[in-house]
Amino acid sequence: MAEANQLFKEFKIQSVSEFFRRNAAMLGYTGKVRSLTTVVHEAVTNSLDACEEAGIPPYIRVELEELGKEHYKVIVEDNGPGIPEKYITHVFGKMLAGTKAHRNIQSRGQQGIGISGAVMFAQITSGKATRVITSTGEEIIEAWVKIDVDKNEGKIVKKEKHLNPKGWRGTRIELEVKNVRYIRSKQGVYWYLKLTAIANPHAQIELIEPDGKLIVFPRSSDDVPKPPIEMKPHPRGVLTDDIYRMAKKTRRNSVKRFLIGEFSRISEKKVDELVKYIAALRLIQTEKDKSVQEQLYERLMKGEVDAVLRSFRGYTKVVKQVAKLMEKPPEKLTWGEAEEIVEAFKYMKFLAPPTHGLRPIGEENIEKGLTGILKPEFVTAVTRPPKVYSGGIPFQVEVGLAYGGEIPNGFEVLRYANRVPLLFDAGSCVTTLAARSIDWKRYRVDDLERTPLILMINVISVHVPYTGTGKQSIASDEDIYNEIRLAIMDVARRLQTYLSGKHRRLSQVKRKKTFQKYVPEIARALSILVGVPEEEAAKYFISFIESRFADIKESTPSEVSENA
Amino acid sequence: MPKRKAIKRERPKEHFSYDPQKVLRKLEEYGKRVLENIAQGKNPYFDIPMRGLSNVYFDEKKRVIRMGDKLSRRYFLNVAHARKFMQTLLIMAYVKRLVSESKHASLREAYYANKHTIPGTKENTFEDQRESDPIIEDLERMLGVLREEMHLTADRRGYIYGDIVIRDGEDEFNTSKLGRGGWAVPGTVEHLQFPKINVDYVLVVETAAMADRLIEEKFAQKENALIVATQGQASRGVRRLIHRLHYEEGLPIIVFTDGDPYGWYIYSTIKQGSINLAYLSDKLATPEAKFVGMTMDDIKRYGLENVTEKLKGIPPNKKGGPTGDYKRIIEEMDYPWFKNKEWQRQFKMALKMGVRIEQQALANKSLEFVAKEYLPEKINRGDLLP
Fold this sequence. Notes:
The structure holds two protein chains of two kinds.
Chain A: H1 2-13, H2 16-22, H3 24-27, H4 32-54, E1 59-68, E2 71-78, H5 88-93, H6 114-126, E3 130-135, E4 140-148, E5 153-162, E6 170-178, H7 189-199, E7 204-208, E8 214-217, H8 240-249, H9 255-262, H10 268-286, H11 290-301, H12 305-310, H13 315-327, H14 335-347, H15 363-374, E9 378-383, E10 387-389, E11 393-403, E12 410-417, E13 420-422, H16 430-436, E14 452-461, H17 478-530, H18 534-548
Parallel strand pairs in A: 1-7, 12-14
Antiparallel strand pairs in A: 1-2, 2-6, 3-4, 3-6, 4-5, 7-8, 9-11, 10-11, 11-14, 12-13
Helix pairs in contact in A: 4-6, 7-15, 8-14, 10-11, 10-13, 10-14, 16-17, 17-18
Chain B: H1 20-39, E1 45-49, E2 56-59, E3 64-67, E4 71-75, H2 82-100, E5 105-106, H3 107-114, H4 129-143, E6 152-153, E7 159-161, E8 164-168, E9 171-174, E10 183-184, E11 193-197, E12 201-205, H5 208-216, H6 219-223, E13 225-229, H7 236-247, E14 253-256, H8 261-272, H9 281-284, E15 290-293, H10 296-301, E16 309-310, H11 324-333, H12 341-353, E17 355-356, H13 369-381
Parallel strand pairs in B: 5-6, 12-13, 12-14, 14-15
Antiparallel strand pairs in B: 1-4, 2-3, 7-10, 7-13, 8-9, 8-11, 16-17
Helix pairs in contact in B: 1-2, 2-4, 3-4, 8-11, 11-12
């Protein structure tokens, strides 16, 4: 336990820039294209979060200036609430070194270090401070921010104040970065912003590319989403480190109070149960015979904790020992005891975690986002109810589908985790696997690769299970995989209904033509048979057809492709 | 001195009834109904009696194959019907022109006359004669008139020879005075009239070779018979002619075919009509027709064992059987009109002996044998199968 403490301290002391370099991959600063995207991502995320917290519909403008070879200035401006002067260093300079910020909250930030990482990246590639211009509506503050790598905190190297006659409010940051490249690839800034715009229909996002071209992703919804709520962690979703760290910080006066107060689904009764489980686990460890040990673990898993305890002589002593543990102050909790608690949680049964803190985009807003950016012919979305994976971590899946219109032929999956676009490692992502596992032919999509079809999949969770350090691909957890599949099948069924309707309308028009083309022949024959003038007979037939097909508009079907 | 004969001309049961106006009236009536429907905003249709085995039954009383009363309704406003609806009207208009101009057209001519590209499309009114032929059959059933009455002619095949006078338009002739070739029966016999009949019965002969033999042997003159050569399966014209000679002129019909399943089927068609043309049985079939030969009994009685031929196919008691002739015989045994003692016996004998006997096999005795002995004997003795 002492070692762990030591480790933690050492981590803090370690050079921040060294830490940054070592963890570049984890932080998203690998590759020239991706590094630039990450810088933009951190800035835009900050802006979106700030606007949402203040309930302001975001207006975000991203500008890229090419200063030289692989040398850019990144400017991100928003209409957010602005940053009060004293918080500037806190926002841009605080590096949460060592352990990641383990808040039990759904957040856009994946990397844990946010915008300060971007400031750091600018600093170590170009040596320049980051220029911040911000106002809460009063005076305008212009500050140049750097990170003091020794103290691990922000430092304002230069500051100016300006009058704000027009009452401008918001934040503009300018970062100079080297070793990056702008290209319009699917890993680049353009694509990132486009995907961000789809998942954030309440935001107006503009991009000025290095060549001066302005691209606007317009706002399509007026509802600013409510910020997510922090939820108490569920026993099944915590690691030893979490308990250990939280125990150090808590104000509760006993381990028991701490467990009941800081975690969800833990009651007094559960703590009593926990004591028994920990005691049982300790006792089982003392068992020499491996096969007997295995059996006991199995029985414990089945909930036969009392029976397991009774099989050991003098078990009450152990139980009492453990019970004592629960009464000691939480800060005295050792690493080993925290480990025991987590181990015992695995054997216990808990109610599913609360899900009220999750903030999905919502079906309506997904549809708006897809419509606004992609201009499809058909759009639909499904937000599944919250579910739980690996026993204790709530998550929720949303899937939007856009078809036809301005979408080019070809199938594409837009992947998101907590509304943040995932641009890398698509192949191994659970969303891709789920999308590919669907038998699209059943939904009237005969040739997937030549159908103008886009799926947007958003996985929301307090802890999205990423694969690898890049955090660009979601692990193939079975619960998540199944939820995504169900959601896709749901939207695919709606697409099927739409396509069938379209075919029906199309065939109605075809049918009408079938009848119309025979009218002249029939009229001539009738005129010979009965002596009625051809035109008169034709008139009867045409008005008859018209009356039977009155409700069909002839314009719709022209854009229908046959493979639809 | 006149020989006593078993076969004599009877009283006619039907009368000459050809009336071109009837077709015209019907066409106009159907056309008017379509026009009325459409003018009232109703989906116009034609009711067409259904074709095929499912709508065919054997009328025990009249002893003919008849069409059932199943109708199929052909609508204009139905994707599956529209084209046929149009085609039906096209042919109706064409028939009207033919009949009112007293012209006749073959089925192929009717097809070409009505085939054209529909304006504004790449579609033809008729793509194939296989489209127009069924429409004509539909019209026959729907209007209850013969194709011939609509001036659409059938294949012509078959000829007649005998002392009767036929009036065909402006021509009048005796079919025994046209040389040994006789008179070829046209596709349409509807308008023919018979001013003079000097025969006692009609002998329908399957093969032209046998008919020619009988003509050469002066069988027609000696026996007072009209020889009708069908040349295989009887054409519609021949069948209609046989029907008219029987019902309008009272002539008994005696059929003479090979003794094999194919010959018996020719007889069956003449007598009861065919499944394809069940709706015309009233006009084409002659249930009173009788069968003179070849029968299985003839083989033994006339000592023809050496001139029989083996039946083709596998017998029913052998592996894989019955096939070929055997299968055909077994099918015919099941026809309701063959369900009588005499015919069942014939079929059983054929199956047992495994042989067939051709008309020409009688030449084994002598060329004149069939005309001088075989036929007169059997017919005058009344040794006929029902």
